[in-house]
Specification:
Elements (H helix, E strand, L loop, with lengths): L2 H32 L5 H23 L15 H31 L7 H29 L16 H25 L7 H12 L1 H16 L8 H19 L2 H12 L1 H15 L38 H8 L1
Length: 325
């Protein structure tokens, strides 16, 4: 494969990744706005979206297809190439970690507002922001302190294995928290089997961003073995990591929306039953199913006039999840 074709193929692949991430975030924000559920997790998703738009632009601005060359370094005037390097290098953690903060805040929706677990999740979100700042500052410290990379053909600062180790370790620990915490919160919640599998799978999808982070770290560790293509591979895997992390943070909203749409008929039937019960209209049960009808537990009767006996939709775990997402 020629260098030109290789570069073009990479750009098309990254365009697909970024388009999915940007489209999913836009849909997520629209969905939350129309349902009046905008919250802090959506704010941080919006921050990651804005940064990813700039990051996406660098795919085509930095990497121009050279004519008659044997390598694929970025082309253009030196100052422009230096500026685009900084844009590409610094925006990777600025997409990934706000996306993780968004996921952390989404998990906090499952905890009651006054619970200590919610405060702990807020503290974890702050830790994620600090980790993103540390990773960004580390790159600035290494690359700003030595300008010799301005003269290499790729105009690329090679940060070395230290950055790779720190990036990989923080990615693994951060994503492990985003998988383990919701699993612990939902462990004792009685959900229908299908919904339970769906919810746990969505929260476990943070593993995808871990895998993307591992690929990125491997290319950093083995950058020297790729020769003139090492700059290209390291930067492209950084784009994949950022786009996948942003996409993962939107899956909970998107998949639950699709799931509800596919089950609209069943939900409408439930709503009609609840409305009939509320106005006092009852439908006689079928004879063969009469034995399965259960009496509501004391203190939870629908017809009770006592305010303390009123059951709101968020009083039970599954309905609370429905309220949150």
């Amino acid at each position: 494969m020629s260098p030109t074709l290789s570069l073009t193929a990479w750009q098309v692949i990254l365009t697909i990744f970024h388009t999915l991430a940007i489209t999913s975030t836009t849909f997520r924000l629209w969905r939350r706005y129309t349902t009046r559920k905008l919250w802090w997790d959506d704010f941080w998703a919006f921050v990651a979206l804005v940064v990813d738009l700039l990051f996406f632009a660098s795919v085509w601005l930095r990497w121009e297809v050279p004519t008659g060359a044997n390598t694929v370094p970025p082309q253009g005037p030196l100052l422009r190439r230096i500026t685009l390097f900084w844009l590409s290098a610094l925006l990777t953690p600025c997409v990934a970690w706000p996306a993780r903060v968004s996921m952390c805040m989404s998990i906090s929706r499952l905890a009651p507002p006054t619970a200590r677990r919610r405060r702990a999740l807020f503290a974890l979100a702050v830790v994620f922001l600090l980790l993103g700042a540390v990773l960004t500052a580390q790159k600035i410290w290494i690359c700003a302190g030595d300008s010799s990379w301005h003269q290499n053909p790729a105009v690329q600062c090679y940060t070395g294995k230290t950055v790779g180790y720190l990036s990989l370790s923080t990615d693994v620990v951060g994503d492990a928290c985003l998988v383990a915490i919701p699993l612990r919160l939902l462990w004792g919640v009685k959900l229908p089997r299908r919904e339970r599998r769906l919810v746990l799978s969505l929260f476990a999808s943070s593993i995808l961003s871990t895998l993307a982070g591992i690929v990125y770290a491997v290319f950093i560790f083995r950058a020297a073995s790729f020769g003139s293509y090492r700059t290209l591979f390291v930067n492209m895997t950084a784009h994949i990591k950022a786009a996948v992390t942003l996409l993962v943070c939107n899956l909970l909203v998107i998949v639950t929306y699709i799931y509800r749409k596919l089950n609209t008929e069943g939900l409408e039937t439930e709503d009609e039953t609840e409305e009939e019960s509320r106005i006092g209209v009852t439908t006689p049960p079928l004879e063969e199913k009469s034995e399965s009808v259960q009496t509501p537990p004391p203190g939870r009767r629908r017809g009770s006039d006592s305010e303390s006996d009123t059951l709101t939709v968020c009083d039970i775990p599954y309905a609370y999840f429905e309220c949150a997402f």
